[in-house]
Amino acid sequence: MAARSQRPVNVGRLFHWAAEQGRPTVMHLDRPFDIAPDSGTRFDAPALAATVEDAAGWLHGAGLRHGDRLAIVKENHYDFILLASAAARLGALPVMIAPIRSEAHIRTLLTRVSPKVLVMGTTVLERMTAAGIALDDPGMTLVAVGGDRPGVPDGTLRIDDVRGGARPPVRFRGVHEPMLVTHTSGTTGVPKLVVHSPATTLAAVPFRIESYRLPLMTSRPGDVVASGISFAHNRNLSWTNGTLFRGPKKMVILSEPGLDNVARMLAAHPPTSLEACPNVFQYWEELADTRPELFAGVRRFISTFDAVHPRTVRKFLGASRVRLPLWAWGVGQSEIAGIAAGVATRSMVRPGRPRAHDATNVGFPPLVRVKVVDPETGRKRSRGKPGLLMVRTKSRCLTYLGEDDRHRAKDQGRWWNTGDLGEYAGYGRIRLIDREVDMIPGMSCIELESTLLDRLDRASEVILLGVPGQPPIPVLCMRDDALDPQEWDRACRGLPEMDKPRLVPWDEMPRTATWKVRRGELREQLLGSSDTYGTGQWT
Predict the structure, then answer these.
(1) Which of 306, 316, 303 lies closest to 349, judged by CA?
(2) Where do the DSSP E strands lie in 74-140?
(3) Which is deepest, 71, 184, 190, 347, by most CB within 10 Å?
């Protein structure tokens, strides 16, 4: 009980606490940390704490002080949270920005941050330099991390250039003060920068639920827990907190979702728990088909950030050789943590199950209150009537960094406007329909896309674009980049009218840092139009 009462609520204490408590977990990386390239790929709790301590020292050497802001823009890897922990120990505010596609968007976010120190991955720095975007803000120190790249400007500071100073003092911020900033997925434009405190993250129950002992759902001492998410997002914080507290045998980090890399890591460290973003799981379906033995020992699959399709769940649960594997899913936002969550078994995703009762888009609010309201009047909707989802939770963010007005526009007293559409499904459950900005009147894109995925075995992605005045336009990623017309005709049988399908290779689909498809950008790319049915005013 002593350990439970002393659990940290500040990210700056998380790894030192794990080392002090003797947490037995060993972390295995698919590649070395960008901030510790010579330290190998195996880290126990003391080694993680030492890496945080080292980072705090060289960040202090770069000029970072209590009250300053640190911007982190680098290649996806778990060391995002190590840098955040190091900055929090100095009393600085870390802002974690994933290496999003648009260099202009990165520049906009950095302007909102106005950092004292910028830690940038060399791949991103090379992109910024090639785009002609300057990073010479007055009073800002730029430190590059990662491997050497030919496009990195001469004279750019590296970690060794700012290392070697005196050990800096540890000065944590208060429990209700800003502690960490992550960005939203950014499916509809420049991502928003979400400001959280200890009180809205590690001190809030939704962020701590995974540290409780829940039958079949939480880690056990012998478990191997693998994760392949966007490590720049808040999900990394809650996952780390819960995993370190439960103390499984291994944490396996999948920083890059490529099939060869994932197969190599899962073969070397067979997981009992595997987490990824829904679109990444879709991409990995090819592995479930060709290398099912990689998933044979998985008891628990976890998908977060977005809705998941039944075919994906069915394939992975089918690949597991465990008697009763579970698929745990959650849909949430960086601003508020969870909106709805559920658990699926093999029988719950069997073919032919009615979409309106699907186990992968009908779930319970996870320790938050949710209501469905009419988008125009704000009045509560009855069961079966679609509307906007409003959430009330103690894990709601403080504001958007540099966009307080935008935050206030979605903050309606005790309720937060998610911009998502859903409906009451009975017994306290919520059925997810679509993002309001992506809606198509009279149908659910989530459900129609699920149906098409079920009928197109070789499809790794199906996106439906609503365009006013014409039938919905399906956009497909096929494993071999080919679609037989008869195959498409069979898939469309009995479905609403759709336009002819467009094929886009998986690697060319515009995506967010969490691998969601940027539908607005895709619409512009394919159609040269931004017209939608939704208003987008709550995005």
Answers:
(1) 316
(2) 93-97, 117-121
(3) 71
